[in-house]
Amino acid sequence: MSGSKAIGFVFVVATFCFAGFAGWAGHSHDHFVGTVSAEEADAKWGDLSGQFIYGGEPPVPEALELNKDAEFCGPFDLHSEQLRVDKESRGIANVVIWLEMPRRQTPPIHESYAESAKADVLLANKDCRFVPHVTTLRTTQKLLIKNDDKIAHNTAAYLKRNLPFNAVSPPETEDRRTARRVERAPAKVSCSIHAWMTGWLLVQDHPYMAVTDKEGRFTIKNLPAGEWTFHVWHEVPNDVTAASQESASQTWKKGLVTVTVKPGENDFGQWTLDPKLFK
Questions:
Q1: How many CB atoms lie within 10 A of CB 175?
Q2: Which phi and psi (to 5°) does residue 277 adopt?
Q3: How far apart are alpha carbons 166 and 234 in whole angstroms?
Q4: Contact 210, 220 (CB under 8 A)
């Protein structure tokens, strides 16, 4: 190779290598996670906490009429779980809130959820009721249905985007079921043997779901920072379409509300729900 050709070849190779390095260096840290410091990684995620309270005198749950196995189930003093309001805080239990995603889209998922991605999620027939009353399940997980009672139950889930199932549960047995498609809302769960037994099952392809506790509180941890749409739901009105905060009311069309999640702690606030929603 002549001297001039060799110099030209070296120049081309050097130019190509420099361009390649510059292109690599110009990529965002999202693609090269190994270069992200712990501080930068933490800065991309936030927790969202809030509370839903009842805007009136807490209603008294009705005693349930037991149509079968009253001798076994009667001592559990069963009452309706349709609307549970805490007497002290007026918090509403079993309000469901989840990250609403467009079809075929999933959000970034924090590494803290990796361990539970394929875990069993327990739905128990216990003391003649479903525990928990509302179950959240990821499409990668398995639903573990257990019967802790000494009588037979069945667990029927009326799924719409997944194959509905009716798991017969002899005393003190267990079964596993899967749901691989996202459900747009919680699906009803019932026991045909004991008509008063009802529950709900929400299936999503991400972990960003929560159910309020007895004081109406919830926390969704390690959400990706940014502007997101959340779905708020309760079994009586279904979509929660209106709420007020410090006397200012908002309308949430189809139960959807937009929230900006910032890195760190985020307070969604305390929201009051009008008793008319539950009529």
A1: 16
A2: -65, -25
A3: 23
A4: yes
Burial of 233 (0-12, 13-18, 19+ CB in 10 A): buried
Q: What is the pLDDT of residues 214-233, one digit of tens each?
A: 999 999 999 999 999 999 99
The whole-model pTM stands at 0.84
- Contacts from 75-84 at CB under 8 Å and sequence distance 24+? 76/127, 76/128, 76/129, 78/127, 78/128, 78/129, 78/196, 81/129, 81/133, 81/198, 82/235, 82/236, 83/59, 83/236, 83/278, 84/214
Q: What is the dihedral of CA 125, 128, 129, 132, to 10 degrees?
A: -40
DSSP state of 91: B
Cis peptide before 170 (omega within 30 of 0): no
Beta strands in the chain (DSSP E): 45-54, 96-99, 120-126, 129-131, 134-138, 142-147, 153-157, 165-169, 174-177, 187-190, 198-204, 209-211, 217-224, 226-234, 238-239, 242-245, 248-251, 256-261, 264-273
Identify the band that residue 168 occupies on the pLDDT scale cut at 50, 70 and 90.
very high
Q: Are strands 153-157 and 165-169 parallel, antiparallel or unpaired?
A: antiparallel
d(CA 276, CA 53): 13
Maximum separation of any 2 CA atoms in the chain, in Å: 102
Residue 247's pLDDT is: 79
